[in-house]
Amino acid sequence: MRGSSIFNQLSLLFLGLTGLLLLAYLVILINPYVPFNPFPPPGGPARPARTTPTPTATFTPVLPPTWTPTATPTATPIPSPTSTRTPTQTPSPTPTWPPTATPTPRATRAPYPFTCEVTYRANLYGIPWSGVAGHLQDLDGNPLPGYHVAVNCPGIPETLDQVAGADARYNLMYESSAAWERVCDPSAYRALDIRVRIYDKYPSPDGTFRPVSDWIQVQLGDWATRSLGYITCTLNWEEWRNR
Q1: Contacts of 114 (CB under 8 A, 6+ apart)
Q2: For the CA atoms of 140, 142, 147, 149, what is the dihedral angle to 10 degrees?
Q3: Strand ranges (DSSP E) for the chain?
């Protein structure tokens, strides 16, 4: 029953559409230039062309230019000239009158008039022999004979038995007129510790001879090239030069 109703409605719809179509054909037949005729006859009135709307100019307000402030140049102050200092006069040193002599530095005075130096060598005899020898001189190398030489050999008492320059043989051997020599072992090379000291050529009022050098330590070896300790004593006190 319901299906019949739907068919009836569809029939009515198609019937109505058919009537509208017939009506459109009738209008086109009467006036073929109607707008909805898809195939109008040629030579008929021209259809008004579709006009494209002209865009309306949009008014854009123009603002006046913005005023940018221009920096006003500032005047640079011109430095005023500075005054140049007038050089002051340096006072010249005032001369001292009478002039004062500048002291000349002097070497420290030795504690004794003579300073001595020991060198080691082979004895001049060329045989097994151990002893000491030497000479005395001033600062210019001139010989100073007459001074007494005390030699202390191990096992032998100290005696003032050597006088510089008193033996011509020693003067010739050691090439000085103020030479001396003392043997401690005449037959062997021996390692010995010998002490030597120089005494004044003139005795003191009490009859003793004053030492004019410090003790000199001589250390011999038990071989030939160290069998002689040679002592060179130099006078350093100028006031003793002409004694």
Answers
A1: 136, 147, 198, 212, 213, 233, 234, 235, 236
A2: 80
A3: 114-121, 130-137, 148-152, 159-163, 179-185, 193-203, 209-211, 216-219, 228-235
- Residue 1 CB contacts under 8 Å (≥ 6 apart), including other chains: none
Residues near 111 by Cβ (< 8 Å), separated by ≥ 6? 214
Cβ-contact 194, 153 below 8 angstroms: yes
pTM (2 d.p.)? 0.56
Residue whose token pair is 């030597």: 196
- Cβ-count burial of 85 within 10 angstroms (0-12 exposed, 13-18 middle, 19+ buried)? exposed
Round to the nearest angstrom and report the end-to-end CA distance of the chain.
181
User: Above 80 in pLDDT, residue 101?
Assistant: no
Angstrom distance (rounded) from CA 17 to CA 5: 19
> pLDDT for 124-161, tens place per residue?
999 999 999 999 999 999 999 999 999 999 988 767 67
Residue 112 Cα distances to 40, 148, 238, angstroms: 161, 15, 12
- Tell me the per-residue pLDDT of 171-202, one tens digit each, with 9 for 90 and over: 999 999 999 999 999 999 999 999 999 999 99
Helices (H), ranges, the chain: 2-30, 168-174
Please choose, from the candidates 90, 109, 103, 133, the residue with its C-alpha nearest in 3D space to the C-alpha of residue 220: 133
Least confident of 1-5, 16-20, 159-163: 1-5
pLDDT for the residue 59: 47
The three-class DSSP label of residue 116 is: strand
Query: Torsion over CA of 170, 173, 178 and 181, rounded to 10 degrees?
Result: -50
The rounded distance, in Å, linking the Cα atoms of 199 and 90 is: 62
Strand-strand pairing, 209-211 and 216-219: unpaired
